[in-house]
């Protein structure tokens, strides 16, 4: 998504009682409108009254293909030709819990409620790799370190790196969280630092180059443990221009966006956003940060950094409409 479209998205004058009505060529909103219309009957059949559980399962790749998880299927919408494809598993694995494109968009990682994890070729819909282990906890978050190494965060607090090029895919285990890991993000500038946020209200910063102990050669210890959030940490994102700057967002009893110096773990700033913070997205080219929020205001806010003045904001498009940001900035 371009900065111009993002600005249009959050412009205050765009607020309408029935929701946002963007430009006709705004592919993201075209998809959402089409998707809601196509699957309204399915939601009614299942007696669902909230859209938030489906809309949060979104991942937009650098190829401008938006993936949306609905129950046990993934829908792909290609902005180039405005086509929609369905990826449907051959067997019942439970509802999808997380989806994430690889950096080169060659595969889509899809996690299921039965703890299975599949790597799917979007062109063919075939599973090219994956894991099946019913003894593992369900996956809550995913982050690609490279096109072959995937970091997986689970409901029981475990965080693990897997290299799908190897027979023994397990690389290392990150030991720190006590409950479910809601958010994971690798720093693309350095490629060595990982941030994680959890249901235990903790943020961890990990250094992939940090020596491990002789007793546990595949277990990494956190570099910094941050405990200042007062609710679930649903969102973390690295600044794309400063390798030592991390933003994190707290849940319904917190409402804060916090900024961290990852060299020493110091808090640089904390802003009360007024609602639970569900997702964060730095602009790659300007000093701006886009945040999405849940209760009570369900707003989408564009901030200037480091002043943290609001550039634009839109509220109550639909309750629970912005649980996750499934977009990315373009040049």
Automatic annotation (TrEMBL):
Belongs to the WD repeat CDC20/Fizzy family. Signal peptide: none annotated. This is (wild Malaysian banana) hypothetical protein. Keywords: Cell cycle, Cell division, Mitosis, Repeat, WD repeat. GO terms for molecular function: anaphase-promoting complex binding; ubiquitin-protein transferase activator activity. GO terms for biological process: cell division. Residues 56-315 form the CDC20/Fizzy WD40 domain. It comes from Musa acuminata subsp. malaccensis (Wild banana). WD repeats lie at residues 174-207. The keyword Repeat applies. Component of the anaphase promoting complex/cyclosome (APC/C), a cell cycle-regulated E3 ubiquitin-protein ligase complex that controls progression through mitosis and the G1 phase of the cell cycle.
């Amino acid at each position: 998504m371009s900065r111009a479209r993002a600005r249009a998205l959050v412009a205050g004058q765009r607020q309408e009682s029935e929701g946002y009505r963007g430009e006709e060529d705004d592919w993201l909103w075209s998809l959402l409108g089409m998707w809601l219309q196509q699957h309204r009957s399915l939601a009614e059949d299942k007696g669902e009254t909230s859209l938030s559980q489906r809309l949060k399962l979104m991942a937009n790749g650098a190829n401008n293909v938006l993936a949306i998880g609905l129950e046990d299927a993934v829908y792909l919408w290609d902005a180039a030709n405005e086509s929609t494809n369905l990826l449907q598993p051959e067997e019942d694995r439970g509802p999808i819990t997380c989806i994430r494109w690889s950096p080169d968009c060659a595969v889509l990682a899809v996690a299921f409620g039965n703890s299975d994890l599949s790597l799917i070729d979007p062109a063919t819909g075939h599973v090219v790799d994956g894991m099946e282990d019913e003894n593992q906890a369900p996956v809550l978050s995913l982050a690609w370190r490279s096109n072959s190494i995937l970091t997986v965060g689970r409901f029981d607090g475990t965080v693990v790196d897997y290299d799908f090029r190897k027979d023994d895919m397990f690389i290392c285990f990150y030991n720190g969280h006590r409950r479910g890991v809601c958010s994971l993000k690798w720093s693309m500038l350095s490629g060595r630092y990982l941030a994680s946020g959890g249901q235990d209200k903790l943020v961890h910063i990990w250094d992939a180059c940090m020596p491990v102990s002789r007793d546990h050669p595949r277990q990494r210890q956190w570099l910094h443990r941050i405990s200042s959030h007062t609710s679930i940490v649903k969102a973390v994102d690295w600044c794309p221009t400063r390798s030592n700057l991390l933003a994190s967002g707290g849940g319904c009893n917190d409402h804060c966006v916090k900024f961290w110096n990852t060299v020493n773990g110091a808090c640089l700033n904390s802003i009360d956003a007024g609602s639970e913070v569900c997702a964060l997205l730095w602009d790659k080219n300007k000093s701006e940060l886009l945040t999405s929020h849940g209760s009570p205001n369900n707003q989408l806010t564009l901030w200037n950094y480091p002043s943290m003045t609001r550039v634009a904001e839109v509220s109550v498009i639909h309750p629970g409409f912005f649980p996750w940001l499934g977009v990315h900035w373009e040049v």
